[in-house]
Structures are given as C-alpha cells and as structure tokens.
C-alpha cells in the first residue's frame, strides 16, 4: 500500500491511498498489475467500474488456477517466488518518485516456518529494493515469530501479531526518508545512517499545564 500525502506541487493535501496485492498459495501465484486507488474520495471512471478490484482479481485467479488439470506440470516454489519477485519489481516501477509517497508493505506469514532463505532471496531482494529506493516500511504479520525472524531481520522489518494490524500504518506520517553521513579518517571510510520521518501534529496532542 502506498499513500500520496502531498499534491504534485509538493504542498500538503488530502491523502490518497493506493493498494496492490501479491500472494502465493500452494502452487498458485498472483500479483496486481497496477496500484488501485482506494477511499471514498476517489471517483471511479466508467472503465474502472467494470474492472475488478485487486482482491476480486486475486480470488478469481485462485479459483481458475485451482480448477486446472492437476496432471499438468506444477511450478516449483523457487519458480513461484521468482515470479512473485518480478511482479513486485514491476509494481515498484509504477510508484511515484522517491519522496513523493509513503510505501507500507505488509508481509503475511501464515506458515509456521518461512521458506528456506535461499528460495526466498529473490522476493526479499524485491522488498529490499522498495526499502532502499522508496523508504518502504515493512511489517511481517505472523503468529510464528521464530519461523519468520530471519526474513524480518534481513528486511529490517517489524514482527507484528495479526491482531495488531492497525499499528502497522502510522496515519500521522507525512514523509519518510534517511540521512547518511560519511567520513574518511585514517584511510578508513566510516558511515552513519539515520532513519527520519515527519509526522503531522494535532492541536489536541499538546497539553497545557498551569
């Protein structure tokens, strides 16, 4: 999911929300072809009215793939994850320029143990690209923290219980980025990285004490 907190001119405006879905289940894989705008403020065009939502497209795709002949060759997990990674790269290419939107990625880990790290690497690479280029905030939602700890650590992601889903997206956030300070001293290169963000503050957040 990504949010556009600013107008094209860079001035603050009402947030616009966009959603995309990528999922692997069994031997099936689905990825949205584009970002879908959400929210009551979005007025759908006639062409959008006839177009299924990302969730509807996923459920339809899942149903169609499950109905295919089981005798046909089934893709391996590595092939599925490679295809999923390519889908995420294509979605990344359709994001606004860095700094123009907030990107929040929710990874749902339903299995007790994540796939082997070597098999998962292409998908992790696609997610890491979103972190490095678009300052994506990644949250891994799972009830099996131990099984997903390594993947979350690689992505610098938070491990979150499904019941705490609402905590994954900070609605006050306006900007997210980073600062890297590099120094060359005694022939060695040193660097310090800082993660930064800007949040809107409401008047009610201040408390006056007399």
Quickly count the helices.
5
Taken from the alpha-carbon principal axes, the silhouette is globular
> Roughly what fraction of the amino acids lie in strands?
25-35%
Walk across the major sheet and give the strand order.
Answer: 5-2-1-6-7-8
Low-confidence stretches: 206-210
Q: What is the terminal separation in angstroms?
A: 43 Å
Q: Radius of gyration, rounded?
A: 20 Å
Helical content band: 25-40%
Please provide the ordered H/E string of secondary-structure elements: EEEEEHHHEHEHEEE
- Number of DSSP E strands: 10
Q: What's the mean pLDDT score? A: 82
Task: Characterize the biggest β-sheet.
Answer: 6 strands, mixed
Alpha-beta content class: alpha+beta
Topology overview:
Layout: E1 2-6, E2 12-19, E3 22-25, E4 28-31, E5 36-38, H1 46-49, H2 54-66, H3 77-93, E6 102-109, H4 117-134, E7 137-142, H5 145-154, E8 158-160, E9 173-185, E10 188-199
Parallel strand pairs: 6-7, 7-8
Antiparallel strand pairs: 1-2, 1-6, 2-5, 3-4, 9-10
Helix pairs in contact: 3-4
Q: What key attributes describe this structure?
A:
210 residues, alpha+beta, 6-stranded mixed β-sheet, two-stranded antiparallel ribbon, globular, disordered C terminus
């Amino acid at each position: 999911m990504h949010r556009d907190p600013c107008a094209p001119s860079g001035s603050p405006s009402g947030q616009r929300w966009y959603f995309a879905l990528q999922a692997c289940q069994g031997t099936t894989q689905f990825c949205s072809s584009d970002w879908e705008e959400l929210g009551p403020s979005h007025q759908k065009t006639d062409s959008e009215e006839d177009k299924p939502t990302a969730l509807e497209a996923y459920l339809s795709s899942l149903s169609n793939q499950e109905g295919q002949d089981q005798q046909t060759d089934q893709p391996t997990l590595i092939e599925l994850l490679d295809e999923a990674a390519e889908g995420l790269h294509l979605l990344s290419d359709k994001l606004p320029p860095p700094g123009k939107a907030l990107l929040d990625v929710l990874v749902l880990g339903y299995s007790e143990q994540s796939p082997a790290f070597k098999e998962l690497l292409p998908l992790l690479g696609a997610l890491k690209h979103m972190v490095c280029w678009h300052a994506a905030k990644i949250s891994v939602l799972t009830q099996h923290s131990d099984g997903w700890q390594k993947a979350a650590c690689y992505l610098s992601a938070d491990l979150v219980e499904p019941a705490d889903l609402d905590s994954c997206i900070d609605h006050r956030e306006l900007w997210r980025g980073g600062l890297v300070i590099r120094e060359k001293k005694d022939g060695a290169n040193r660097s310090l990285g800082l993660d930064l963000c800007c949040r809107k503050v409401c008047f009610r957040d201040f408390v006056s004490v007399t």
